[in-house]
Design goal:
Alpha-Beta Plaits, alpha+beta, OB fold (Dihydrolipoamide Acetyltransferase, E2P), elongated, 4-stranded antiparallel sheet
Length: 205
């Protein structure tokens, strides 16, 4: 009758299970499917990315808009950004979001959810029970992202004043935008022609 070393067999089973789990638990950052339409950048699979990380797509979008310093909107599962944004920049910001709002700092798994306690947003892990405040993983993102106008981009603005030379004056974030031929009080679509510091010059589209 054959004899078995049960402790050795048990250890082999446990080693195999641990090895399999480490492969299964390794989180892969969803790759954004990006293409360009005119002067816009489109993430084709945005809703699939939000589903993969189990987070509100509007929260992810808000984070990306602030981090990339541009405007954009969701449309039928996609996201459309103003301007041509490099794929590497978008993927990098998605990685920042996941490290900040998704990954558990204790076990490194993505099986987490967000909990609000008072004014503090907490990442709580369903796998190990660990938790951390979101701000503890923030780096440069603690400072508000600076919005930047982009030459060639189109924006909707309201003319707030008239300059000394008769040009319409609009304000976009930190920028003063001069728009020749614009009338005070009018809402127009403009195209940014030139930017010099925080002063921009535009034409009516």
């Amino acid at each position: 009758m054959a004899t078995f070393d049960y402790e050795k067999l048990l250890k082999n089973v446990q080693d195999n299970i641990s090895s399999d789990r480490s492969v299964e638990d390794r989180f892969k950052l969803p790759q954004a499917e990006i293409f360009y339409e005119g002067n816009t950048t489109v993430i084709k699979n945005f809703d699939k990315i939000s589903d993969a990380v189990n987070r509100d797509p509007e929260q992810i979008l808000k984070f990306l808009l602030g981090s990339l310093g541009t405007a954009g909107e969701r449309d039928s599962g996609r996201v459309i950004f103003q301007g041509k944004i490099p794929t590497s920049s978008i993927q990098s910001k998605l990685k920042d979001y996941i490290e900040t709002f998704v990954i558990c700092s204790e076990c490194g798994k993505p099986d987490t959810h967000l909990v609000k306690k008072g004014r503090t947003l907490i990442v709580r892990c369903d796998a190990c029970g660990g938790f951390r405040p979101v701000k503890s993983r923030k780096k440069k993102m603690d400072a508000p992202a600076s919005f930047n106008l982009i030459e060639g981009m189109k924006y909707d603005v309201t003319i707030k004043d008239i300059g000394k030379k008769g040009d319409g004056v609009a304000f976009i974030d930190k920028y003063i935008v001069y728009v020749p031929g614009a009338v005070k009080g009018a809402t127009v679509q403009i195209k940014i022609e030139k930017i010099s510091g925080t002063v921009a010059f535009a034409s009516i589209v």
